[in-house]
Amino acid sequence: LRAVSKPTLANKLRAVGAVIKNRIHDDPLNITLELTRRCNARCDYCNHWQEQKQTEQDLADYVAVVRRFQPFSVTICGGEPFMRKDALEIIRADREIKVLVTKGAGGCYSSGFYLPFLRAHSHDGLADWDKPRTMDRLAEELRFFPRVTIAQVEGYCLGGALAMMNSHDLVFAAEDAQMGMPEVMRGSFGQFATCTLFHSQIP
After folding, report:
1. Cα angle 63, 69, 73; round to 5
2. Residue 173 and residue 104: Cα distance in Å, rounded?
């Protein structure tokens, strides 16, 4: 793995200046944007996925909120934010946002693919592997995203979540974070995550 270079004095001063500017103008340190209440998980501590009617704002509305309040940081949540294809566009649209940090909810980064979804499509016949899937496109978006991207990993990071993690510029993992590919024990080589392990030079 490549060593992470230490921040220069100029970068440190720039960061301090941003905080001072935020405090002088009495802007919020953080605002939270709920992009959607749609979710493909069925967590027992949340009822978002049970809601029948979903109302979502347009991309321009969220961008206007960020520009209006000029927060030091923005938290994007849901539901599952990435069920909106324009989730990253909200960040891309504001040039003042310099860093994108992804993290999970409930003490877990991600347990990977939603297995009932995979089971439902296992009888569809051979897939077109040359055609990018949603997760492929998301990983590519993160890898080439024009901001610094950081994965904040705690709890489980399994299967396809490894591909998500490896698509970031930096990863900060808790000491008790558990990473692995349980699908290998089920006879799958984990094609989505395995290629990113090679790309990241992780043995």
Report:
1. 80
2. 12
Spatial CA neighbour of 81 closest among 32, 151, 144: 32
The model's pLDDT over 154-188, given as tens digits with 9 standing for 90+, comes to 999 888 888 888 888 888 999 999 988 877 776 66
pLDDT number for residue 21: 84
State pTM to two decimals. Answer: 0.70
Q: In sequence order, what are the residues at sequence separation of 6 or more whose Cβ sits closer than 8 angstroms to the Cβ of residue 39?
A: 46, 48, 49, 78, 79, 80, 83
- Residue whose C-alpha is closest to residue 194's, from 156, 151, 163: 163
Task: State the average pLDDT over residues 77-81.
Answer: 80
Q: Are 94 and 142 in contact (CB under 8 A)?
A: no
In one-letter notation, the amino acid at residue 136 is: D
Using an 8 Å Cβ cutoff, are 30 and 73 in contact?
Answer: yes
17-55, pLDDT tens digit by residue?
Answer: 888 888 888 888 888 888 888 887 777 777 777 776 677
- Give the three-state DSSP class for 109: coil
Q: What is the 3-state secondary structure (H, E, C) of 5-40?
A: CCCCHHHHHHHHHHHHHHHHCCCCCEEEEECCCCCC
Contacts of 78 (CB under 8 A, 6+ apart): 34, 35, 36, 37, 38, 39, 48
Neighbours of 80 (CB within 10 A): 19
pLDDT surpassing 50 at residue 1: no
